[in-house]
Amino acid sequence: MPTSRARRTPEAHGPRLAVLDPATGEPFDQAPDQRPDVLDTVVARAHAAWRGWRTERAARTTALLAAADAVEAAGNDLAPLLTREQGKPLAESYAEVARTAARMRYFAELDPGVQPIADGRPVRSEIRWRPLGPVAAIVPWNFPLQLASAKFAPALAAGNTVVLKPSPFTPLATRLLASVVSAALPEDVLTVVTGREPLGARLAAHPGIRHVTFTGSIPTGRAVARSAADSLARTTLELGGNDAAVLLEDVDVERIADRLFWAAFRNCGQVCMAVKRVYVPAPLHSEVVEALAQRAKSTVVGPGLDPASQLGPLNNAPQLARVERCTAQALADGARAAAGGHRQAGPGYFFAPTILTDVPADNPVVTEEQFGPVLPVLPYRSLDDALEAANGTGFGLGGSVWGTDLDRAEAVADRLECGTAWINHHAELSLAQPFAGSKQSGVGVAGGPWGLYGNLRPFVVHRPEET
Ligand code: NAD
């Protein structure tokens, strides 16, 4: 039983959803498998709770800061549960809990302010920001807590209420998180619903929802946009990526190899902003392949609860099948595995960290998001060719450039078509920055003040200077 202070929520009776431990492939617990017909009641209650919650920003700040403290205090319950259902090493689960609390604090204290409109007319005109109403937050299984808080923290701080739907692969830590957070908030301000589809589709389509904020794959993002079309709810979509890392001729391979490796393999490659393709000047190609392969071979892969493990399993069986299929096709098409290339023997969804070379440029392992511990390393002859390849997909989440001359690297980074470009790093995000994919990687902006305004509508008041 959790030792943290958590509001007791009445257990839903009825169908249950088995939750599997990806380190064994065996069920270890259950969550309610709620049917979409619960949504009318849940959304109506979220709407009723909104009337009080939207009125006073100072009270929201106090409640959300108390909730963030409670989340931090519940770390010893949340982190092991997250590792058990998601698979990641325990230290990373603790880091995820810490980032969840940090994000809640950041948004709790962010003030949207009131902006005067100065256009020279004799009118006092200003923008006051208003919340939207009940928000539907739908998130995937790779960072269940962090991504949930990326949705509910700005939405609640802005004065909305939230109905949160985690992935059916990872419902448990989210339910515990929500009960801990809810204990510091008025009733029905934050509600979690768990279950299989069409629960998410029906939530996105619900006429009482005013904003659907979704993180997940591009195909599901399209479905969510369609679902929300009838109610014309605002949609924010944070979707898939296939980030490229472009190495320059002056790169110091030994100096950057660890950073580049972990930028690709952290969380078993199940990171929307992982490095998924590496473009290397042809003369450096074998040195880079060797440096990455050496790290892949020495990485300890094992259950996340084992302190020795550096990489856990993939989260679920369909994801393992997708990574296996994609890798097998690349190998059949002429690629060579400099490390890995196969799943690990034994139970659980483990896949050996894989470095691929001799990969055809148009192979799906390069052009699609495989979302696993597999990294193709591609040689290039001219920088223009490398940038054309890096930019030549429908994705545009992140990208990076690696070299010793930082001015030159920055000039090259400026040519990447994506939402965030890094130099000699990848996927280092600040709470204060806008987070937005370009092309099909996203619609709308999360993060920083933009994330708060994404949950507000401008309300403009005009007042003449004289009666
Ligand atoms: P997914 O799109 O399959 O599912 C995401 C969520 O949507 C889950 O809760 C799922 O149950 C729900 N869902 C499924 N069908 C739905 C429907 N028709 N309507 C509404 N909801 C539905 O994604 P996944 O496999 O869980 O996660 C991996 C994907 O998420 C990858 O593509 C990854 O790049 C992406 N992702 C993006 C970001 C980002 O910030 N851009 C962050 C993390 C993950």
Q: Span between N and C termini?
A: 65 Å
CATH homologous superfamily placement of the largest domain: Aldehyde Dehydrogenase, Chain A, domain 1
- Helix and strand composition category: alpha/beta
Helix content: 25-40%
Number of strands: 18
Outline the biggest β-sheet.
7 strands, mixed
Assembly state: single chain
| Rg (CA only) | 23 Å
Which cofactor or ligand species appear? nicotinamide-adenine-dinucleotide
What is CATH's topology name of the largest domain? Aldehyde Dehydrogenase, Chain A, domain 1
Tally of individual domains: 2
Shape: globular
- Determine the strand fraction and express it as a percent band: 15-25%
Which whole number gives the mean pLDDT? 96
The top-level CATH class of the largest domain is Alpha Beta
Q: Order of strands in the sheet with the most strands?
A: 12-13-14-11-10-15-16
Can you name the CATH architecture of the largest domain?
3-Layer(aba) Sandwich
Per DSSP, the total helix count is 15
- Poorly predicted regions are none
Structural write-up:
The structure is a single chain. The protein has 467 residues and is of the alpha/beta class. The chain folds into two domains: 16-239 and 437-462, Aldehyde Dehydrogenase, Chain A, domain 1 (3-Layer(aba) Sandwich), CATH 3.40.605.10; 243-423, Aldehyde Dehydrogenase, Chain A, domain 2, CATH 3.40.309.10. Helix content is 38%, strand content 20%. It has helices spanning 39-53, 57-73, 75-86, 90-108, 144-157, 172-182, 199-205, 218-229, 253-265, 285-298, 317-332, 364-367, 383-391, 406-413, 448-453; strands at residues 16-21, 26-32, 114-116, 123-131, 134-138, 161-165, 190-192, 211-215, 234-238, 243-247, 275-281, 336-339, 354-357, 374-380, 398-402, 420-423, 442-443, 456-464. Strands 12-13-14-11-10-15-16 form a seven-stranded mixed beta sheet, with helices on both faces. The protein has a six-stranded mixed beta sheet with strand order 7-6-5-8-9-17, sandwiched between helices. A hairpin with a 4-residue loop joins strand 1 and strand 2 (26-32). Helix 2 packs antiparallel against helix 4 (90-108), helix 3 (75-86) runs antiparallel to helix 6 (172-182) and helix 9 crosses helix 10. The longest helix has 19 residues, at 90-108. Bound molecules: nicotinamide-adenine-dinucleotide (NAD). Nicotinamide-adenine-dinucleotide is lined by residues 138-142, 147, 165, 167-168, 197, 200-201, 204, 215-217, 220, 223-224, 227, 238-241, 272, 369, 371, 397, 437, 442.
